[in-house]
Amino acid sequence: MLFKPQRKPSTPKVLALAVLMSASASPLLAQDRVAIPGLNAPVTTVNEPEVVVPKPTAPAAVSSMPSRVVQVSKDDGHNVRPEDLPAVPAAYVAPAPRRPSAPVETRQDVVVSNGANVLIPISRGQINRIVTPFEDPQIQTVSEAELEVANNVVYVTPTDDMPVTMFITPQDDEGVAISLTLLPQSIPPIQANLLFTQAVPGSATGANGEAVNALGGVGYRGQAKRWERSQPFMDTLREMMRDLAMGNLPRGYTFADMPTGTRIPSCNQAGVNYDFSNAQFILGHDFRIFIAVAENQSSQNMEVSHAACTHPNRAAVAVWPHEILEPGQKTEVFLVTRIPQMKANTSTRPSLLN
User: Fold this and answer.
1) Which residues, other chains included, contact 251 with Cβ-Cβ below 8 Å and sequence gap of 6+?
2) Alpha helices, H only, 230-313
């Protein structure tokens, strides 16, 4: 008979140690919490790493905080003033914006007369345009500037700074001449419109009311004569008024000094004042034009009457730009008169009945 020794019952401490060893050895019980007598801390697996959350740090600078200006003394070499900086080479400095220069009036209306020299500035090295009152102007000059004639226009291109002098005459009349001195300057190309006046200081009045200068020559009117008689009478007056309203002179017409003794049109209308004190006097071959100012001096609107102006040789009357004037408003009045043609002197025949 065999004798088997009996095992002693396990103590609680030995049992707890066995359970702890089995829990650490089995991965299936990694997330189970095991209560161990005498211990309050939970037991976790050693395979799960511990997550470390960094603590937030304060920003280096806060934009909302006011900045402080630190005054640094000049002795430490850090306080730099503008006058202490070195000069910057001109090649690296942006040029200052240029102010726009005053505009140059390139269109000029030049009043000329027979034989009197007129100075006109022109563009140096550029083409300039001289509009003459002659249909086919003839140029006489000793200047080396480039000249070209097209119809009634002379194109001048100076090649140097020397003044360009010339005489301009109509093809069919050497008794009339325009004397010009063109001065090259640093300006844009210009256009000079030559307005031929019939009178000069010391002028007198001829038999037909035409201005005769001190030398006895009569102003050029051949172009005006051809234009006036190239179309019917009413078409001539209609085109004449249109040119005047647009600020132009009829073809061949020129400004003139009003001769002494010239009969001025008489205008009379209640409430409207006609001023001829600064009237313009424009002379053609068959017609003369008076341009005056009419002003409404009443307290109500007034219509300028064409029949208010009279003259023994009146041909036409026009008003521009307003025919109905408000109180205090002004307008221009164009009054065209015929130039009376003097009969040629003839010998008389005595009557046989006497």
Assistant:
1) 223, 224, 227
2) 233-245
Place of tokens 């009478």: 233
Residues in the chain: 354
**What percent of the chain is modeled with pLDDT above 90?**
38
- Is residue 237 within 8 Å of 336, Cβ to Cβ? yes
Q: Is the dihedral of CA 290, 219, 197, 228 positive or negative?
A: positive
- How many angstroms separate the CA atoms of 239 and 250, rounded? 8
Mean pLDDT of 245-268: 86
What CATH number does the domain located at 107-196 have?
A: 2.60.40.1550
Burial class (CB in 10 A: 0-12, 13-18, 19+), 135: middle
- Cβ count within 10 A of residue 295: 18
CA distance 283 to 134: 15
pLDDT at 294: 96
Q: Can you tell me which residue has the tokens 């799960």?
A: 48
Distance CA 343, CA 32 (A): 146
The answer to whether 171 touches 136, Cβ cutoff 8 Å, is: yes
| pLDDT attached to residue 257 | 80
Examine the pLDDT at 132 and tell me if it is beyond 50. Answer: yes
- C-alpha dist (Å) from residue 174 to 219, 256, 312: 11, 20, 35
Residue 198 banded pLDDT, cuts 50, 70, 90: low
Would you say 321 and 329 are in contact if contact means Cβ atoms under 8 Å apart? no
Average pLDDT taken over every residue of the chain: 76
- Sequence-distant (6+) residues with CB within 8 A of 92 are none
For the chain, domain boundaries: 107-196, 220-342
What separation, in Å, do the N-terminal and C-terminal C-alpha atoms of the chain show?
Answer: 217
Q: For 74-102, what is each residue's pLDDT tens digit?
A: 455 556 676 777 777 777 776 776 665 56
DSSP helix/strand/coil, 230: coil
Residue 267, both tokens: 């205008």
